[in-house]
From TrEMBL:
InterPro entries named in the record: A-galactase_NEW3, DUF5110, Gal_mutarotase_sf_dom, Galactose-bd-like_sf, GH, Glyco_hyd_98_carb-bd, Glyco_hydro_31_C, Glyco_hydro_31_N_dom
Identification of the protein by name: Glycosyl hydrolase family 98 putative carbohydrate-binding module domain-containing protein
Keywords from the UniProt entry: Glycosidase, Hydrolase, Signal
Domain called Glycosyl hydrolase family 98 putative carbohydrate-binding module: residue spans: 866-1011
KW Signal (keyword) present: yes
Lineage: Bacteria, Bacillati, Actinomycetota, Actinomycetes, Kitasatosporales
Molecular function per GO: carbohydrate binding; hydrolase activity, hydrolyzing O-glycosyl compounds
Region annotation Disordered: where it falls in the sequence: 883-905
PANTHER family: HYDROLASE, PUTATIVE (AFU_ORTHOLOGUE AFUA_1G03140)-RELATED, MALTASE-GLUCOAMYLASE
SUPFAM superfamilies: (Trans)glycosidases (SSF51445), Galactose mutarotase-like (SSF74650), Galactose-binding domain-like (SSF49785), Glycosyl hydrolase domain (SSF51011)
Amino acid sequence: MVLAAAAVFAVLAATVAPSPPARAATATTEGTETVIGAVTGFSHSGASFTFTAGTAKARVGFVSADTFRIEVAPDGTFTDPVGDDIVLPQGKPPATRWADRGDRYELSTDKVTLRVYKAPLRFALYRVDGTRLWEETRGISWNGTSTTQTLARGADEQFYGTGEQNGSGNTSHRGKTLKVGVDYDWDEGGHPNSVPFYLSSAGYGVYRNTYAPGTYAFTDPVTTTEQENRFDAYYFAGDSAKDVIGQYTELTGRPMLPPIYGLEIGDSDCYLHNANRGERHTLDALKVADDYVENDMPLGWMLVNDGYGCGYENLAETAEGLVDRKMQMGLWTEDGLDKLADQVKAGQRVAKLDVAWVGDGYKFALDGCKAAYQGIEDNSDARGFTWAPESWSGAQRCGVQWSGDQSGSWDYIRWQIPTYAGATMSGLAYTTGDVDGIFGGSAKTYTRDLQWKAFLPTVMTMDGWAAKDKQPYQYGEPYTSINRKYLKLKESLLPYMYTYAAQAHRTGVGPVRPLALEYPDDAKAAGDAAKYEFLTGEDFLVAPVYSDTAVRDGIYLPKGDWIDYWSGRIYHGPTTVDGYQAPLDTLPLFVKAGASVPMWPGVRSYQDRTANSPLAWDVYPQGSTSFTLYEDDGVTRQHRDGAYAEQQVAVTAPDHGAGAVRIAVGAENGDFVGQQKSRPYRFTVHTGSSPRQVRLDSGALPRFTSRAAFDVAAEGWWYDASDRAGVVQVKTRAVSTARAFRIDLDAASAVGGKVPGATGTVALTPPQELGAGVSGKVTVDFTAGRTGADTAELSLAAPEGWTVSPARSVGGLEPGQRASAEFTVTPPADAQPGEAVLTGTARYRAAGEDLVAAQRAALRTMPAPPEGETWASDLPWLNATNGWGPPERDRSNGESAAGDGHPLTLNGTAYTKGIGAHANSDIEFWLGGQCSSLTATVGIDDEINGYGGVSFSVVADGRTLWSSPTVSGKSDPVPVNVPLTGARHVHLVVTDTDGTKSGDHGDWADAKFHCA
C-alpha cells in the first residue's frame, strides 16, 4: 500500500464528530508570522483525523501504533511535493480511537495518545501510561515562506540527528542551532548529507517530509523551521533511540546491506589522460592493483575514472583484470547514468555519484542514488553499491554517504571523528571520508587517519588530486607496515562488521555509534567528554589520535570493564584515561568485557577464505553474553530470499575472578551457496589466568607449552602469560556447522584473572627525544596489584641496533607499592630521524601465578645536530609539508614529483642553494641547541611573474622568533638574520596571505644555519 494521503487515511467511512464549542476561529498574527488559531471543525475517517482552524486545516494520520503524521495547510489545501520519493509503502493503519475531553481531542492507539488542544490548536504526545513525550508551547506557525513547530524542552532533554553534520553529531545538539540542507560546505561546520530528522532522549523522533532546507534550534523552546509554506512531519514514539531510528528507517527505508567487498578499502584515481600524473591508460589501474598485492595489502574495489572529464577505455578488460586480483571495478558517473547498463555488463560494481546528475536539489541526488543502485542490480546479480555526498532522507537504502572533498591534516582527523558516529543517529549506516583527504596530508596524518577509519564499515583512499598518490604503501616504512597492520585488522574483522551491517539492514542502526546510543543514561556520553571517540558495534571503543603526539588524553570509558586491545590492561568504567601511550603504530582501542568477536585470521581478501578456513573468536569472558554471527554469500542478492545463516556463540563465565568458562557454539541455522559445511575453530580467550584443562564437549584437548608446538598441532590449547596480560589459545579440528559443540575451560577465570585486581601495571618515562648515538635514561615503573607481588623483574626493550642496560630484579612489593628501575638506552650513531618504540616489561609473581605486564611508549630519534656553517637544504628534514608537491632542495617549487623545480631566482638573481616551497609550507629541522642563527634571503620566485602573496616565519621550540610582512611576487627579496641560540626544533614556515595559494612559491634562498 502506497503511503499517499488517500491510501493512508481512507480506511473507514468518514464520521463527523460533534461540533466543538464555539470559539474564536482567527489565527494569531505576530509580526509577519501567523500562528494557527482555534479548532472550528473536526472529522475523521479510520486512522485519519482532520481539524479545521479558520482557513487552515490540520490532518493527523496514524501509520502504526507508535508512528503518525501531522500535516498543516495554512490555506486549507494539503499538498505533498515529496510524493512517494522517500516514504515507503506501509502496512495497514492501526486501530485507533478518539475522544472529546472538552478542552481537547485525544487520538489514541494502544501505545500513544496525541492530544489536540482546541483553543488554539496545539499538539502534545503522551504514552498510554501518561508519560509526556513532547508538547507544543504554541501552535504551528507560518510566514508565507516557512513553517515552524515550537516544542517545550525538557530539563535534561538531549537531541541527536539531522544527518551528517561535519564536526559534530555524536554528542548532544542541545543548545545548538543547525542548518539542514544543501550548502556544499565540506569542511567543519558543513552538512553535506543532511537529513530532516532528529530524535530526543525523551523517547521520540521527528521526520519532516520535505525537500526544503531547514533550521533546527534545540534551544528553549525547541523550534524547527522548514522553508516551505506547508507543514508535514512524521512522529515516532520509541522505547529507546535505537527503536526510534528503527521506526524512522521503517518509514524511509532500511540501510542497504553492502556487498562484502564494499566493506574492504577502496581506491580511486583517474587512469586516462591524467593531467596531474602524465599520460596513462585505464589498464594502468591493474599496475596499481598489483602494487596492493605485492605490498600484501587488502583492496576490495577501484574507481578507475575518478576525475573531472576522465573517461575510460578497455573497460571489460580492466574489470576482468581486477576480478583476477580479487577486486571489483567502480566508475564515477561524471557523464550521467545513461551508460550504466552497458558499464555494469562490462563489470562495473561500484558507482560514485557526485557529478552530472546532481541538479537543483536533493531530489536529483536521491533519484540518482536510486537509479544507479537499481542499475547495478538490473544488469548483474550483484548488489547495488553507490557513493554520494549531498544526499537526503532515503539515501541510506541505496548508498554510502561521504563527507566530501577535504584536505588531509590533523584538524581533518579531529573533526571527522564525531561526524560519522553522529550520522548513525539519523539512520545513515555508512558514512565516511577519504583517507587523509583528497588534497594535502602527510605520512603521519595518513597513517593516523587510516588506523581509525579501519573501524568504519566503508572507506576509500583517493589519488590523483593531491600532490602525491595516496595508496597506503606510498610513504614507505614505517608507514607501510603500520597501514598494512590496520588494513589487515579491518579485513580480519569482516565477519564482525558484516554482522553489524546485516543488523543495520534489519533495524536501521548502523555499526558505528556514539557512546550516547549505547549508554543513554550517562550524562558524559552526551557531552564533550565523549566527542572524539566512538563505538564500532557494542564491543569496540575507538579513541583516535588527532594531533602530532604519541600520547592521547581524555579517553572516556563508560560503565563496565574495558580491556586495552593491545596490552590487555583492564580499566574500570566510568573513568577518563589520560596519558595513554599511543606510538604511531598504536590506535587507542578498547574492548568491552563480555565481548565475543568473530574474525577471519590471516586474510588479505574475503576471497582468500576456503572451505577449510578457520573461524576465530576473540573472547573476553565476563558474565553471560552472546554474539550471533550472520553469514551469506556476500555478493549476490540471494539473502533477500532467505539464503543466509546465523550461528550463536554464548559465553558463560564468572562476573569476576575464578571459575569455569563455557563457550557454547550453536549449530548454524540457514543455508546459502558457498556456506562452510564444516570448519575448524580458533578461540583466543582473555582470562588472565591459566585454566586447569580445556575440553571440547566431553573430551580433554591436549595442552602445549610453546607457541611453536601449538601452531603445528591440529587441535589443542596453550596459555601464554606474556600475551596481553594472559591469553588462552584454543583450536579445534573441523567441526560440522550443523551441530553445536562446547568449549569448557575448567578452573579458569573471567577476564582479569582468578584474583581480581592482582595484576600490576607498568609505566614508562622515556625522554621526549634522543639524538643519534646519544645515551638517555628511561624509567620503568611497576605498581603491584591489590595482592602485592612476591618478586618482579623489570626490563626494557628497544629497536634493533640500540643498546639497553640489562634487566633488574626488585624485591617483594606490598599491595599498590611501586618499584622503579632506570635504564640507559643508546640509539646507534646512524639512527635516522623518526619514532622509536620502547617496551617496558614486568615479570612478577602474584596471587600464586606468574604474570606479565607491559607498556610501550615512543620517543623521537634525532639526527646528529649540524656543525659549523650548514646549508638548510643539506640537512635532514624531520617533517616537511607543502601546499603543492614536495618542497624542493636547491630548486624552486615544482609539480608533484621531487626534483622537478627550476633554479631558485629572486629579482633576477639565481641562487644555487636554498629551499623552494609553496604556501602553506612547514619544514622542521633538528638543531639540538647547537646553532646561533639562521640567515637567508626570502621572496616569491621570479617564475611566478609578479603575483602571489605569502608571509615567511621562523618558529623555534613552539615560539615564533621572526615573521616577514606580506611578500608578493612584485616585492623585493627580504633579508633574514634570526638568532637561534639554544633552539632545538626550528620550523621554516611559509603562509598564504591572499587566500588564493595560486603562485605562492616561497623561496628560502641561501638559507644557512650558523652552528658551533
